[in-house]
Write a structure and sequence with these properties.
alpha+beta, Helix Hairpins, 4 domains, five-stranded antiparallel sheet, membrane, HATPase_C_sf
């Protein structure tokens, strides 16, 4: 054995003074090495000296190398081989040319031999080959992990798979990649059914709201004619009824318009483009200038990023949040509103914050305020239909983001919208 190595394994020492490499190997040294190997110490090394027993010491060291490299006993039963063999996920390793080098299982009707040595892309649906190839190239180039959903092919249909890609390294060099495929067919079917159901509900809401406009317009039109031509003959009680009817019609029109706006978030939208939130915010403040002057509000804009989004919906999001802050102000206290954002370069996300000094609310109602037609205050106190914040949440979710709020009664509210700076795919 070469004793100059820093990482040399254990050396079986003689019972007297430590022997040198030049001295003959003794029977005692060999017996001690064999004893330690059989006592689950496969890494033990015997001194390779001179003498007639030296070849036995060399042979023992070779055996030690093989034993150290192979799992033994219960370590094999409870080790990674068992996990891979019994996993419900399909685990694949590929070289840099995307040739399959190992696979633990396949779809029904296929054996591992059918796919070993073939190209990974052969087993993908045509429309997902190029996106997968691009992700694989990114993994091989950067060493980062990636994830993609796709459909595979087999004699039993086209199952949906969620594939986690990762690099295989030999030292610092990337020599291939892993692909761990999880069958998400049931989940995908449930998702598609839910999406169809949601689309049908949104379409129904749009059509129903649109069709309600015409009869409502007639109610308002004839009510106004009645007021202008026959108000005197109705008497005080009749005029009161007529006034209430017209006010109810105005509220109904507002509800219908808001319901249409809510349904359009998903049913009609523009592609994602580069959007300057600072420019959008300035336009929103211009639109709300009359409300700002009426309430004596002070609105400040901080740093706002450029991100990929639907510009119309970003404008709608900011307008709803700022208008909400201006509306729910404390009596006799001018609103103070701040709009700013912070960036997380690592996650490539921004957090938009709209903060006010308004009436606030109990945080136990946070989830409720983002639901359609939910109000925490009566219509007599604050006008509105209760759809504005629901629209904000729908816009945030459509952009792969989230929305929440922190609030204290009598002190104010901060709305927090987390949005990605880049969209992974078209909506």
């Amino acid at each position: 054995m070469n004793t100059s190595r820093d990482d040399a394994p254990d050396m079986v020492a003689a019972k007297s003074s430590p022997p040198t490499e030049a001295q003959d190997v003794t029977v005692e040294e060999l017996l001690e090495a064999i004893s330690r190997m059989t006592a689950s110490e496969p890494h033990v090394r015997c001194r390779e000296g001179g003498g007639p027993l030296a070849p036995l010491a060399t042979a023992l060291n070779r055996l030690s190398n093989r034993l150290s490299a192979a799992p033994v006993g219960t370590e094999d039963i409870f080790g990674p081989r068992t996990l891979v063999a019994q996993s419900h996920s399909i685990m694949i390793t590929c070289d840099t040319e995307a040739r399959i080098r190992f696979i633990n299982a396949t779809f029904p009707g296929l054996s591992p031999e059918d796919v070993m040595g073939t190209s990974l892309y052969r087993w993908l649906m045509p429309d997902i080959v190029e996106p997968t190839r691009e992700l694989v190239q990114r993994v091989l180039t950067t060493g980062e992990f990636a994830k993609i959903e796709s459909q595979g092919v087999s004699d039993f249909g086209t199952p949906w798979l969620s594939t986690q890609l990762g690099p295989i390294k030999e030292g610092e060099r990337i020599v291939g990649f892993t692909a761990i495929n999880t069958d998400i067919t049931e989940l995908k079917h449930a998702q598609l059914r839910l999406e169809r159901s949601n689309h049908e509900l949104e379409r129904f809401a749009y059509v129903a709201s649109h069709d309600l406009h015409e009869p409502l317009r007639k109610i308002q039109s004839f009510g106004e004619r009645l007021e202008s031509t026959s108000a005197e003959g109705l008497g005080s009680e009749g005029r009161d009824y007529l006034e209430r009817m017209l006010k109810a019609a105005v509220r109904m029109r507002g509800l219908i318009d808001d319901l249409l706006a809510y349904s359009r978030v998903s049913s009609t939208h523009r592609p994602f483009t580069s959007v300057d939130l600072a420019a959008i915010a300035r336009e929103v403040l211009e639109d709300l200038s009359a409300m700002t002057e009426r309430t004596g509000a002070s609105v400040t804009l901080g740093e706002l990023p450029v991100l990929e989004a639907d510009p119309t919906q970003m404008r709608q999001l900011l307008q709803n949040l700022v208008a909400n802050a201006l509306k729910f102000h404390r009596e006799g206290v001018p609103p103070v509103v701040s709009v700013r954002a912070t960036l997380d370069p690592r996650l490539q996300r921004c957090e938009l914050r709209v903060e006010d000094n308004g009436i606030g609310f109990e945080e136990k109602y946070t989830e409720r305020i983002f639901n359609v037609f939910q109000r925490l205050h009566g219509r007599s106190q604050y006008e509105g239909s209760g759809i504005g914040l629901a629209i904000c949440r729908k816009i945030a979710e459509r952009h792969g983001g989230t929305i929440g709020a922190r609030s204290t009664p009598g002190e104010g509210t901060t709305f927090l919208v987390s949005l990605p700076l880049r969209q992974r795919a078209a909506p």
